[in-house]
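Protein details
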Amino acid sequence: MPSCTHDPADTRSRASYRSLLRNREFTGLYVSFTLTVAAGTLSGFALGTLVSRQTRSPFLTAVSMYGATFATVLGALTLMSVADGKRPRRTLLALQGLSLAGVTAQAVPGLPLTARFALLLLLGFFQSLATGTRMGLLTEAVPASAYVAARSLMNVTSGATAVLGFAAGAALLRRTGPEQVFALSAALTALGLAVVAAGVRERSIRPARRPGLRQTLRANRELFAHPGRRVLLVNLWVPGGLVVGCEALFLPYSPGHAGTLLAAGSAGMLLGDLTMGRLLTAERRRRCVLALRLLLALPCLLFALHPPLPVLTVAVFVSATGFAATLPLQEQLLALTPEGVRGQVQGVESAGRMTWQGIGAAAAGGLAQYAGPGTAITVLAALSATVTVSAALVARRRAPAAA
């Protein structure tokens, strides 16, 4: 197993979180991102709870929590070139405004489930474009040497926010209805919109070109034509997506303790990203990828044995630290990406990752209908480990040819 020890000599060369937060533009992107994550966590948990109560279906519950990810691929395939447009701040504001309208509509009492799922897909489409635009702005707001630290800080905060969001959502739903939680989510989305308006400046250094379907398709063809990028995308998308499918079954597996398991997963992700972003060199980050991807899947095999809740909580926590492999993989992808399409490529990467999360959730829910949640979690975890090993073998065979 690769060594993942800390190299103290490299610590001084990496940007600190404090220095990043002194950058006003990064702070604006960071705070708005945090508010967006908080809003998404609350609304997703509220919708999953509402669907579970009304349908008692593991499949529909899983899709309601992660179904928006299916729409992200539509944004990646059609209009993701807007992420590299000449006025990214204006684009981000418009997309945030559309998301606000969708979340606000979810708060309408008595809204049919069909309408809720339609809104879910619409929000996923806008979310994918907003993510690409935000990440494109990030690569311009911070120097290349600070990119991993910036993504690490955002991921760490995302994990902490998700922990608090799941805990707050579970507490609120004991006292209020899902519509009130949706309303709180809308308020957080509006606050994130205000932060972007006040803290992010418009860019004028981008080339003048018209974003649209043709530009998106051309950049996507170039992205997938590169063998190294294809292997990176498989590693970024599939193993983690299958494990997220496992997480989508926590509600059907243990309705009374799902919040605890989800919070444990978010806490593990936080610890993994913090360690990866602050304590390891670029070389050691790269060498840890295989070990972390296997760590992501293997602890979830314990669900086959139906152990006590404390054991499952620890297993989920340990498993989620494996999501930290995303950082070095994103770092490698950025190094292989031309500057003019970095926003689009990061948006496609994020959209594909989220789409595979939706695929994992749908597959897990469908399997759980027949085999039960515990068995479905075990099967998807085993598939995740298999894909990880297979991708590593392919990469190893191609390495001599690339050299």
